[in-house]
Amino acid sequence: MAATAAKLQANRWPTLLDSAAVRFADRGYHETSLRDVAEAAGVTPAAVYFHVPNKQALLVAVYAEGVDRIIGNLEAALSYETDPAARLRRAIQAHLTSILDASAFARVIVRVLPDDVPEAAAELRAHRDRYEKRFHAVVEALDLPRDRSSTLHRILLLGALNATPLWYRPSRQGLDKIVDEFVAIFGAEKPSNN
What we know:
194 residues, 72% helix, mainly alpha, 9 helices
């Protein structure tokens, strides 16, 4: 009987993560309680504590899942591409697809910054850094002019990409048009001397 109860609890974890991601994305970390998450998942607060000791640990788990999903999208998009400019386009497309998808995990990463939760900041930064290192490699491979900083280029690009959910509406423009604009602004093409 105990093994069956443990199996049932384990099956609740994906639902709890999804519910937590939606709550953190919609309300923010500080405005979300474990009771809110439990209610949204259709479980008791005790079921949440079966999986995590506190809200901070739940946020870290949501971050980890969100970063894993974004990394998976990025790696799939880049898997067969070797041209640096094409890799940038695919990385931008993968990033936007991740943060604009219907799930809330990537929105949590964009909304809840590590400094918002000092008690979990180091863990949250470590997860963000896992992704940024992969994106860093894409930007480093670009043929930027010598007077341009690849670090600033990456930071500005990710900042602009992460702001997209604030203004993007699917009915206005297709995602390809937005990717084109990002590539035009952040691509490695050298300006002409006309």
